[in-house]
Every structure is written in C-alpha cells, then in structure tokens.
Amino acid sequence: MTDFVNFALYHAWLIPALPFLAFVLIVFGLRRHEKAAAATAISLTGISFLLALGVAGAVFSRPELVEKPLVYSARWFSMAGLSVEMGCLIDGTSAMMLFVVTLISTLVMIYSTGYMHGDEGFTRFFAYLSLFAASMLGLVIATNFLQLFVFWELVGLCSYLLIGYYYYKVSAREAAKKAFMTTRVGDFGLLVGIVLIQTFLGTMDFVELSGKLPAFAKEAPVLLTTIGFLVFIGPIGKSGQFPLHVWLPDAMEGPSPVSALIHAATMVVAGVYLVARAFTMFSVAPEAQHFVAYLGGFTAFFAASIALTQREMKRILAYSTISQLGYMIMALGVGSLTASMFHLMTHAYFKALMFLAAGSALHALHGKADIFEMGGLYRKMPWTAAFMVIGAIAIAGIPPFAGFWSKDEILVMTKLHGFTGLYYLASVTAFMTAFYMFRMVFTAFFGKENPENHPHESPVSMLVPMGVLAVLSVVGGLVGAPFVAKGFGYWVRYGAYHHPEFHADVAGISVLLALLGIALAWTIYGAKKVAAKDLAAKAGFLYTLSYNKYYIDELFQWINRVFADGTGKILYWVDLYIVDGIVNGLARLTAFAGERFRYVQNGQVQHYALVFFASVVFIILLSGLLGVTTAGVQSGGVAG
Amino acid sequence: MNFNLLSTEIATALFGSVLLILSLVTGKDARRGLGHATLAGLLVLLLITFTQYGINSGGFSGTWILDDYAVFMKQVFIIAAILVVFAGKSYVEDFTGNCNEFYVLMVFALLGMMGMASAGDLITLYVSLETMTISFYILVAYNLTSGKSAEAGLKYLILGALSSAVILYGMSLVYGAAGTTLFAKMPPVSVASPVLLLGAVMLVAGFGFKIAAVPFHMWSPDIYEGAPTPVTAFLAVASKAAGFAAMLRVFLGGTPVAPDNWLGIIAVLAAITMIIGNLVAIPQTGIKRMLAYSSIAQAGYILVGLMAADPAGVNGVLFYSMIYAVANVGAFAVVIAVERATGSDEIAVFGGLWQRQPLLASVMTVCLLSLAGIPPMAGFVGKFLLFSAIMDQGIYWPAFIGFVMSMISVYYYLRVALVIWRDEPKDPAPIAVESGMRLAVMAALAVTVVLGVYPAVLSDLSLAAAKSFFGM
C-alpha cells in the first residue's frame, strides 16, 4: 500500500498522461471501434483516478506537503534569462483537484456510454473527453504559470471542440465560437500578466514566486496590483465572471455530459484554481484581492437573479454555475482559500449530479428543454427525479448535505474578514438559489404530467454514476464540517491552519433563507397558490430585465456593431486600398525579382564559372572596401 | 599517437572497404542486401560516435581535433546518411546496370565529411574535402541512363574543380603569409598581413561554393535537379553541413578571421543568400529545383549563426544543421516516393497526395512547415536560436532580413501543401510506401515535431558541443 502511494506521488505526471494516451489511442487506432474506444478512455481515466487516490493518500501520510509542496520537473526549454519547466506540483490543493477531476471525468465517461449510445461520433466524443480530462489534469499539476497557460489553452480548445460537438447545428457552432472567443479575451489579459511576471520577477515558477512576492509587493505595489488585475482577467473569462459570463449559458449546446464536465469539474473551475495557485500574489496585493472579492460576490448575485426567470433546464443550471463560481471567487477574494476549494469540491459533486440528471431528463424527452413543457417526470423517472432533488437540496444549503458545509464556510469567512456587505449579498443569493432550483424541480419533476411526453427511466450505465455523485452530494461535505478534527481545511489551505468554527447565527440564517426560498417556490410552482404570471406582471420591468439576462448579450452586440464593425469598416478600407496595395505591390515585385533572377540561371556551365570568378573578384573588392584585407596594414602589422 | 581519436574514421574506412569488396563480388540481385548491410554499418558508426562525447582533445601535431563539436557534426552526417539510405533503397535498386558501388561511395563521402569536421589544419581539411567531393562527382552522375544525371555530374566536376582551385589558392596564400597550416597557430588579425587575409577571402568563396551561398550557388539547382534524388538529398544536407563544419573551423577555430569587419563579409553573403534563395524559389515549378533554392536560403539562415561567432551562434548552427537535415531529408524522401510512383518531379504531381497516401502528405507538410520555421515544428526553434544569437549582440538587421524572408518562404512552401491538400489527384491510385521509406519519413516526422515541442533534448547537446568548440 505504501509502495503504491509513493509510486503515485512520484509518478503523478501519469495522471494527465494516461487520458492523453487514451486520446492518442482512440484517434489513431480505435476510431471505428466504439466499445474499445469507450473502454480505453474509461479504464485509463479510471487508473488516473486510482493514482489520484494514491496521491491523496501520500499527502495524508506526509502532512508537510501541505506547506512545502513536492515539486519535480523536467526542463522544457531554456534560453538566456528564461528557463521553462514542465512538471508536477503536489500539495493538498492539487491532490484534492486531481481527485475531483479524475472522479468526475470517469463518472461522466461511464454515463456517456449510455447517453451517447448510437451517436455517430461516439469515438470522437470519447477522444475529446479524454483530451479534455488530460488538459485539465495537466493544468492542475502545473508548477509554473507557463505550463498552466499551455494547459489552460488546451482546456479552452477542448471545450470549443466539445461545445461544438454537434457541428452540423448552427447554434452549436455559434456557441462554440462564442465560448472560445469570449474566454480568449480573458486569456489575453492572463498572458500579458504572465509576461509581466516573468519580466519583473524573473520567474514564473509558483514556488519561487511565493518566495519573491512579499519583497516585490513592498517595492512595487502598484505594479503588482496591475499584474494581479491582468492575471485575474483570465479567470473572469474562464470561470464566467461578470461581464465575460455570456459564453457559459450558450455552452449548453454541447451534449449534457459535456455540460457536466465543463461546469462541474473542469473548465470553469480552472479560473478559480488559477486564483488559488496565484494566491500568494493576491494575498500581497490587497486592492486586486478586494476586487476579486467584490466581483465574485456581485457575479454570484447577478447570475442568481437571471436564473430566477429562465425557462430552459440547462440554462438555469448554467446560471446557477456562474453564481456558484462567484461564491468561490468571492471566497478567494476575502482571503479564504480553504472555503473556496471546499465549495469547488462539493459543487463539483452536486452540479455534476444535476447536469447528469438534467441530461437524463432531456434524453428521455428527446431534447425538450423548457421546464414548463415538462412536469410530473418523477412518476416515470423516479431515480432521475430523486437525484435532481438531492442535488437541489445540496445546492440550496440544507444540512447535512454537502453544499451546506461549504457555503456556510464561505459565509462565515466573509463575515469574519469584515466584508459585511458581501455577506448580506451572499445570503440573499443563497435564498435566490434555493428558490430557482426548487422552481425548476417542482415544475419539471412534480405537478401534472404533460401528456405529450413519453419519458422513460435512463439505463443503468447512466444511473450508477449519478448514484455515486448523489451519495457524495449528501455526505461529501462532512469532511470539512466544523466537528471534524483535521478536516478539509487542514489539508487544503494557505498559511496557518484555522479550525473552522460553527457560527450558529450564520448557519441559522442561511438555512432559514434557503427554507424560505424552497417554501416560496412550493407556494408558487408546487401548490400554485400564487400564479407565477401575476408575479411576473407585477415585477414587470425587473422580470423582463432578468429574463433577458440584463441585455448583456445585446450590449455586447451593440458594442460590436458600433465600435468593432465601425472600426472594421474603416480598417477594411485601409486594408483594401492601402495595405493590400502595398502588399500586392510587394508581391508583384517579389515575383518579378524571382523571375529576373531565374533567367540568370541558364544552364551554361561556362556562364556559371564566369559568375563564380566574378563573385570571387567581387568579394575580394568588397573585403577591401570593408577594410578587411587592409586591417593589418592599418594597425601597422607585418606578415606573421 | 592516440588512435582512439580516429576510431570513427577508421571504422568508416574499414566499413567502406568491406562494402566495396562485397559490391564487387556480388551481382545486381544482391543490391538489396548491400543496402541492409550499409544501414547496419551506419547504425554501428552512429553508436560509436556516442562513445566519443567528452573526449575533447587534439592529436597528431594539432592536425586533428576531436571535440564534442566534431562528434555532433559527425552525427548529423551519419543520421542524414541513414535516412537517405532508408528512403533511397528502392530508388537505388531501380538503377539499371551492374553498379553496386552506390553505397560505397556514400560511405566514402561520409568519411570525407567526418574529416572536415575534425580537421585541425589546412591539409587535413583539403584532403577530407576532396574525399567527399570526388565521391559526390560520381554519385551525381550515377544514373547512367539519364542524360540529365550525366550532365549534372559533368557540371559539378567542372565547377567543383574551380572551387577547389580557389580554395587551394587561398590556402597557399594563407600558408605563405602565416607560415603554418594549423588553425590554432594562425596569427591574430591585428598583426595578420593583407596576403593572409586575401587568402582567407578566397577560402570564404570556396566554402561559399560548398554550402551554396549566393553568389556561389549557381551550380546547385542544376545539379540538384539532375542528380538521382537520394544523392540530391545527401548533397543538400550532409555536404552542406560538412561545408559549415569546415567553415566554422577555419574562421572561428583559429584567431585570424573573427573580428568585426570579417563579419561584414559573412553578413553580406548571409543577406543576399537569404534574399535571392527565397525569391527565386517562388517561381519554381519543379519540386527539386524549389527545394534547391530553399536549401540555398537555408544556408543563408545558418550563415547568420556563423556571423554571431560565439557559442550561442555555433549552438544555433549545430542545432539547425541537425533539424534541417532531418526535415530536408524527410521532404526529399517524399519526393523520392512520389517520383518513383509518377515518374515526374513537378510540383503539380503532388496534387491530392493526401488521398493517395496520407502519410506522405502529412510528412511533406510537416517538413515544409519546419523548413519555413513555423512553430511548433523544430525549424522554428532552430531559427529562433540562430536569430537570437545575433540579436543578443545588438545586431538586428540580419535577423530582420531573416524574418522577412522566412515569411516570404512560407508562400512557396505552403504552395506545395496547398497542392497536396486542395487539388484533386489526376490519378487517384494509392502510392505504395515500402517499409524503409515508411521508417525514414516517420522518423523525420517524429523528430521534427518532438524537437519542436521539446527542443531541450537536442539543444543541451548542441550547446555543450558549441562550448567545446571554443574550448569552454
């Protein structure tokens, strides 16, 4: 057992390498063998999961790793003043992430064998999933910013491929493009930040940086804050923070398992993880950190307020993801890495569960997405309904479900660190979360059946992964509960260990708000005591604003039309008549010169000999001109 | 007398002689076996070279130098030879007539190249140079039934003799002025006489011929086109690398010709070589002529590294020689395969190659991208090393010309790729790829991609070799 644990610890690079191997095998050998492809992907990712367990075990047996991460790496390339390595950084945080990512990936793959059954691109789907998992795992173990960035981009690429999986659908293509380009805005900021880090601090290595940053913060606080903002633009894009969240709901065009993977375990939490990795930097750049906190808090509230009125099941879940990511970002901003990572983990469980359950429902209804066209699904799909309810309770924050403990930790930390405004905002968000989740549950899974629908329960291959996640959604939060000695916060932390304390007031209020939210949802959508339409009419303006997602998309389009298209038109003119003129002129000149020189080459050997000797004479004259042959004379030298 | 310094060369000479006897006593049908024997022998030679790293000493009164630099260069030659033999085996088997000495001549050319990399004085250098060149005279004319090949051989002989004469004349001037043939004992330029420097200028011209630098390049397109394609590949890659190996020894190994104004001459050559090579490559319609001009342009890039005249520059030259060798032989290997299948070397016959043989299409595309210097192919790293070496010295214009010309080169390299991937094949019949060819192109593909993504494997080695060159 110890052997395996040590093996896993020192071969952690295998964890991303194995899914990558699966990708290569599927692409180059198993394109036409569906069963073999799925088996390869699942088994290799499964082995990665076992290794991740081993790494976690290693961290447990060597608590010093939490403060002094184990780093081993190979040099990737080097040049004067820049040496870049690729390697593994193992500490509590990365071990936890490895566990979560491999677990969710494996479960999603198993689920996909049922969900994607009979799909034309079955093997392509598994190839992409494997590559996606590999990229995310490579990102998790990154030892420096550049390695992280490389995998960050790979994750972006994979999400593009997966969102656009149904490439023959226009909406899927558009969504894929939108996701790729929106996150690209963030990537650009991140890249500039990374370049600045390398320029001013001389290293991109996380461990070295943590040594250098405190001194640097005293020398150049403004610069460091700037870098902090720039780096944070990356997570704004990737983790769907306001105002770059617009791609995330559209990303629902991908198959449901993809949504589960992207929104629960991988892509979107990459941004949160990046901030956690760069936590040393944010902890010494208070302005940047406060910005992180307030943006996170605002996003949490903002996205929840949109989710209140959405009608499509996966869209509601998408906005809830944005909102929950806001919580995680906010937790980092208020200075608690533990709370953020804890919520990341529990969120991965219950959000993956809900997306898979949603996928199961959509699968049964052949893609019907509007929750108001569903209804009473629990009769035909008891398991799916149960799983969805478990997920909803978990996200609403009802004890002892997983979401309660992590959300409570965030609320406590926000309050304790003096962000009272954010604390209230987050509490209200918790209320809204409970409301919109149960609005969806009551509408879609309970109430009257829609006679047009003929749902059926999903196959076992889909139910089992959901079952595992459901169990984790119930009990997964206990590892970080206040009554556990050396719990989650002991292993995943930054700085000294603080045992989480139970604050009855914070917990009480949040549970009360959550229950109120559920009760309200029941009144309106379960018991239908109040008609939703009347409410919508009364809150007319607010309702329209929320339903149309605050017109952010329209705003971007307007900006695009006016500024981008306008500038584009001017530049197009410049391009057409000035740049093209120059370029085409140059090209013509080049071609002309090429033709001329070509005719010098006439195949006559005496001609060649003549040119050769003429050139010798020419070069001798040239050297005289350059003063080469007379150098000795000028310096008064004589023949040696 | 430390014969260990000569162990690679002795092994090569013995191997060549054995091969010669074998080729005399066997008939035409044994040619395939000879090819295999050559491969085996070359692989053994490659293994031997690995034992020679770290020796770093000279011998035989300073006429022979075995440093890591020499070993690295020898590996470039041997690897090029191995790839050429793999790719060219069936081409050679197609020759009519009882002419089994093809591989023997290759091995002796290889021996000459090795001597050029290790030469410590002018005499050793000249003898090695001629060993290589004379072997090539025969190889170029090897296709007896082809008038083009014979013409190319004759042209190469005449022009090669001219260049030898210039080199020899330059050498005698240098010897006359310096009183020694040893590079290490050449007087520093500050006290060198004009005569010595005049001699050195003639050496530049002579080596300029070998590496096909403009304006001494006129021979190369005709000869590349006329020679049997495996010979062209070997000539374009190994002979050129050997020329560079010797040039570095002459101009950077001793003291006479390193100062700034010397670099002026090299710089002018580098600049016009990059410009003319790339420009003239554009209108070419034959793939071999296009690759000939492209390899002229590549010599221009490498000259930039020579111009830097420091370990970083030499590192660039070494690294680039290796990856240029691999990518160029890869491209020529595809040309060989397509030429054998279609009987033509026009670019147009590559139309729709991806439908006929996806492997060859991919290899060609990757190799051309590498030659163009597009990341993540190895060629990008090579150009990066070469140009950053000169830019680190605060001299920007050669790198600037290099960048602009690389951009222009993308046009003619990708035009081939365009034909491969866009056009419909005239004859959709698949092209067969036999196992040796498959190995050669896959190796070229793998090396080009792997070294592009993870260059440290090779650049660590080449940097150590470059440092050994300066005795560091």
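qc> DSSP finds 28 helices and two strands in chain A.
qc> done
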